[in-house]
Write a structure and sequence with these properties.
CATH topology of one domain: Ubiquitin-like (UB roll)
Number of strands: 27
CATH class of one domain: Alpha Beta
Shape: globular
CATH architecture of one domain: Roll
Helix content: under 10%
Strand content: over 45%
Distance between the termini: 14 Å
Number of helices: 6
């Protein structure tokens, strides 16, 4: 639970509730906070503009504040103070994200892709890129964005599977309006207590280069990470490159029926130098070729203060390999709302994406074994009807050693949405995982932290797993103090694991739970989109399992 999600905004909520009874009376609000900028009626269609060979003219960037002070409902003194304290996103920050420039040929799809890219930024609530004028062969464009509160000196609390987590942090995902992210935090979870400092820059010096760095000092080790990259930032990007270095050591635990049964120290180092080339978007498809070199080393040691026999430790492993891959992506998106978010514009993918990778680990590159590295991914979206959607995903990874598969992991999933009433949506999700010869430091787990909400964390383990979730979601028009959108859900989860993992068979059979919860969609803060408050009731009568679980989590989706 975010006790101060958005920092000062929570204080504004509390004070508004106490000191502004007239404001509190306006809790029901049909108006969405999404930006709705109509295209001028006298403007030619996109196809007509493109056929006429129009070029981009002036680009006007309008960065709007958190609260709209022209709206009488948002002229509360506390909201004006929030706007005053907030450093609005700089126009140069938004300009660095644009996929078009003045003088270039006008292409409607580049405007749509720019909108999607802007909405992915954590400091932007919504964005519109609209042609507003056409004269003398030039199209003037207006880019409109709406800020959210990004500075959070706050405290976070979460609970899932009977375990609590806390976090104390100072975080700003839009530092001084430049779009950079800075975080200093101290967090505690069931696994460790950590102090962390991190920085990320999505547009170094206004370019398309990105950089990131992090340092974490934990009760069980440390982590250092640095990355510099020029990604495929659009469907037309002709090349990419990435340099990454990560080094960390931490305690890894293994579980049996939710209880920790052993632990050991995992010291890992990984490095990557990679790149890619593409011909851009052709006939609605983008094809990319990627290549590079990776090095991954894992050393396993007894945890200080324990006497775990060396024979029970996972064997050390060093993989070093060149790789080549591909990515095929269809340009097919649809703009919707009130599916995975509340009151936000959502860009749903109804295309096909296929990617794969092949690597060759060999002692000639510094590896301790010869292996063929395999990775594959498939994503497909279907708009079955205007009111029904289906999304399918599958992932596969493995390495071939001595003629057989090792650490094979294959996932498949399906998500179904049916809006059978304007504000009611039936959601169903199924996922399945099979494994073979998992590396011994890994476990395939199922519990309160990954979908089976009525049970403890990491309760079941095995070599394969299946989970079915059904939710009746409700999206209301309740908009308390114009800060959060309120929704709710009634849900049921059914799942189990099969097979004996590295520590034996902890499969108590098919587990079921039911429950209900509230959803608070954050419209003014960039620090987590949806707050979940759930009450889950296990239906299996198992000794030691509580009669209900109370879960509070900040999630990216409903």
């Amino acid at each position: 639970m975010k006790l101060s999600d958005g920092g000062l905004l929570l204080a504004f909520t509390v004070i508004a509730a106490i000191s502004e009874p007239v404001f509190a009376a306006k809790l029901t609000d049909k108006e969405h906070t999404r930006i709705e900028e109509p295209r001028p009626a006298d403007l030619p269609s996109d196809s007509e503009l493109e056929a006429a060979g129009a070029v981009v003219g002036n680009i006007d960037i309008d960065t709007r504040n958190i609260f709209d002070e022209s709206d009488a409902r948002e002229t509360n003194g506390l909201f004006r103070l929030a706007n005053h304290l907030h450093i609005r996103t700089k126009r140069s920050t938004i300009k660095a994200q644009l996929l078009f420039a003045s003088g270039e040929k006008y292409t409607a799809r580049k405007l749509a892709e720019t909108e999607r890219a802007l909405r992915l930024l954590s400091y932007i609530y919504d964005a519109r890129v609209v042609p507003v004028r056409y004269a003398d062969g030039r199209v003037d464009i207006e880019v409109i964005t709406k800020d959210v509160w990004t500075l959070s000196p706050g405290i976070s609390f979460g609970r899932a599977g009977g375990s609590n987590s806390t976090n104390f942090n100072i975080q700003d995902s839009n530092f001084l309006g430049w779009g950079k992210a800075l975080q200093v935090s101290r967090g505690s979870s069931v696994d460790r207590t950590s102090d962390a400092v991190s920085w990320s820059d999505p547009n170094v010096l206004g370019s398309k280069w990105t950089s990131a760095a992090a340092y974490v000092n934990s009760s069980d080790g440390s982590e250092r990470e640095v990355q510099v990259a020029h990604p495929f930032y659009s469907l037309d990007t002709p090349w990419s490159t990435k340099i990454t270095a990560v080094k960390f050591d931490r305690t890894t635990a293994r579980y049996y029926l939710g209880q920790r049964v052993d632990k050991f120290n995992d010291d890992e180092s990984s490095y990557e130098l990679s790149g890619g080339v593409s011909n851009g978007l052709i006939d609605g498809w983008t094809k990319r070729l990627t290549f590079g070199m990776r090095y991954d080393r894992s050393l396993f040691l007894p945890t200080p203060g324990t006497s775990m026999p060396a024979r029970q430790l996972p064997p050390d492993r060093t993989l070093s390999y060149p790789f080549v891959g591909f990515d095929i992506l269809q340009d097919k998106y649809t703009r919707m709302g009130d599916e995975n978010q509340i009151g936000r514009t959502e860009d749903l993918y109804f295309g096909t994406q296929v990617s794969g990778e092949l690597g060759l680990s060999n002692s000639a590159f510094g590896a301790d074994r010869n292996a063929i590295m395999l990775v594959a991914k498939l994503l497909r979206g279907f708009e079955l009807t205007e009111l029904q959607q289906l999304f399918l995903t599958s992932d596969f990874s493995s390495r071939i050693e001595d003629g057989r598969a090792r650490n094979l992991i294959a996932d498949a999933g399906a998500k179904y949405y049916w809006r059978w009433r304007p504000d009611w949506l039936l959601y169903a999700a199924f996922s399945g995982t099979v494994t073979d010869s998992l590396d011994p430091e890994l476990q395939l787990l199922l519990g309160g932290d990954n979908g089976l909400r009525g049970y403890p964390l990491r309760y079941e383990s095995g070599t394969s797993r299946a989970l079915l979730t059904v939710e009746q979601r409700v999206y209301t028009d309740w908009y308390p103090f114009r800060l959060v959108r309120v929704g709710g859900a009634i849900f049921a989860d059914v799942g189990r694991t099969w097979g004996s993992g590295v520590i034996g068979n902890s499969d108590p059979g098919l587990l079921r739970d039911v429950g209900f919860g509230f959803r608070l969609g954050n419209t003014r803060s960039g620090l987590g989109n949806v707050l979940h408050i759930d009450f889950a009731f296990p239906l299996n009568n198992i000794a030691g399992i509580q009669k209900f679980q109370f879960l509070v989590q900040t999630m990216q989706t409903f």
